[in-house]
Design goal:
single chain; 615 residues; alpha+beta; nine-stranded mixed sheet; 17 helices; binds sulfopyruvate; binds manganese (II) ion
Amino acid sequence: MDMINQEKLKNLNNEHIIAKVQEAIKLCKPAEVTVITDSKEDIAYVKELALAVGEEKKLKMEGHTIHFDGYYDQARDKGHTKYLLSEEVNWGLGVNSIEKDKGLKEVYSYLDGSMAGKEMLVRFFSLGPTNSVFSLKALQITDSAYVAHSEDILYRQGYEEFKKLNGSPDFFFFLHSAGRLENGVSVDIDKRRIYIDLEENRVYSVNNQYAGNSLGLKKLAFRLAINKAQNEGWLAEHMFIMGVHGPNGRVTYFTGAFPSACGKTSTAMIPRQSVVGDDISYLKKINGAVRAVNVENGIFGIIRDVNPQDDPLIYQALITPRELIFSNVLINDDIPYWLGMDKNIPDKGINHSGEWFKGKKDSEGKVIDCSHKNARYTIRLDALKNIDPKANDPTGVPIQAIIYGGRDSDTTIPVVESLSWSHGVFLGATVESETTSATIGAQGVRKHNPMANLDFISVPFKTYIENHLKFTDGLREAPKIYATNYFLKDDIGNYLNSKLDKKVWLLWAEGRVYGEYEAIETPAGRIPKYEDLKTLFIRELGKDYTEAEYVQQFSLRVVKYLEKMERMSKIFENIKMPADFTKELKAQTERLKGTKAKFGENIISPSEFLGTPSS
Ligand code: SPV
Ligand code: MN
């Protein structure tokens, strides 16, 4: 390392950082080491380097680049993402782990010399806004200029923030190497490993480039943060944050957790609302209220089906000059194309499979689409016209409601409000989503995905739920909790709701925060009254919402709900859970059984519950 770079490290006055960098150099043996500060020149250097080494290529439009991940490196590698554990644990949820010494030995062997002939980049970031009680510090060391460049778009710079540590070791450490490259992509995929060490707050990742595996700050830091949050009494969640715009200029902030393909982005991007973040949030109690920040500063979004009709704001951001990385789309004549963009797609070009032509098959005989289904765009949040003015507020935004969104065709009501905070935690912990054609494996299979966080919970499930249950201690008012399901179908398989209807559910929930609408109490939670929805449908969507539609959508499918309770009882019977959670599961089951006995029907109309007192 030359004097200038040494000086940059020394100025941080932190021996722990120097030790980490030295460890990385000794192990990975780079040809060069470059320390990146928050200066414009340093940041521009990373961007240029990504082009110079060929990890990114310029496209026709100013600022746009394309990056390809290897053909078999197109999504998170769940199988090779493991916790390094010194002793066996039973977290109640399936946990992928490896004995620590063994895992370290293995990943060190792959990292050994992995940067020979390459340049090592040392970068500093802040998870959450800078100058904030939410901010966590993250040190990223990588030999991938694409990774370092992506993180620059997606996160806030933290070199100056690191100085505030005053020599403390309280930061996350990520060491990544893309490994051996051919044509700019990692080739030793069989040796791809992502090993997470919760005890040391560090992650080693090697032989990969896809952001979910390589960018320490995304899902790897998220796992470390969930663990840290349990110890410190706050929440790290797989949630968007949005401003819901009620009457007379009122803005009410919601967070929302949805498994993939359940409507997370489309909810955050509902027209005339504003977005604070789309993926990961930290929530803390400050002066008796819940406040939350977006951990990130950008969007690593799925590009499939982004088109002028369905996602006008995102589409606009993608077709105007700005700093923007496309990944795994089709490139023809330096112009990007993707599935579902509503434009004619050329018959040939370059994509994640190399030279591509229509009908091309892979080695397993599978037809290769023009772009990968998980192809992405990487932009700063301020590329979107609907960015919320408080998106970078160091104190976060006040959270007054939380939504948990699932996906099922025949059970849960489009929107319900929980009966209490603990009932809301129960709703979040029992989210299910049916697999779609976009996911791997059979279609229509229900997957349990508590808080949309199944892949990331890094503590015993009981601890995680307990932390949620007690989160309201000391609050002046608990946020309301809602569960949504945008995907109910009728008997012949047609969706009962249009894509835009979610706007009405959201605005109803917003009004409920202020007690503006009455609700009907059912065994599954509180539901809207027909008249209120009718008014909202006319006002917001110019649509005549009939009572017949309401009854079909909001009737309690009591037998189906009982089946769901049975699935949940099975899942939870072998997991130690907090008593309050078990109580909620029992109580909801009993309420449903009582209702079934009373009415003797499989499906019960909302009007049957009208007499029940509700607040
Ligand atoms: C997700 O899959 O939840 C993402 C993208 O947000 S990834 O970086 O793969 O985690
Ligand atoms: Mn995500």
